[in-house]
Amino acid sequence: MKGFVDRVVILCGGEEIARHPRCYGEAMFVANPLHYLALIETKPGALDQAAALQDWTLPEDFQHLRHLLEVRMGNKGKREFIQVLRLLEAMPMEVVTFAVKEAIHIGAIGFDAVKQIALARIERRPARLDLEAYPHLPRMEVKTTRAADYASLLPGIAA
What DSSP element (H or E) covers 1? Predict the structure, then answer.
């Protein structure tokens, strides 16, 4: 660990693994929640007890997504939620929040859908979701209409 006037740098094997603003308060705990997500992903049960995440204020849509994921998938849903949080390591909060809202809106609840929507937003293109990854969603099959079928709508003409 190296301490500077304005920051603290944490090293592991000579490689910088974290950087935090320095706090001069007594017995202050300063943590960046994003630094802990990789560890929490290996132990998803720690999501609710992790001290580094206790004061992390996320938009309400994240809690709604977590609830939906856990109801539908149980413990796997908690892991998927952590993966969604890990998107914040590489993408701005606004982009991930938009993706979470959009995924909830269209009913594509899952990490893959949120990631796809977020990437599409960054790349400024429409999202194309592969519905094969969501077997629990209802399937819509629309048959092709033959032109002759419209004749049955006219009075006096039998199809």
Answer: none
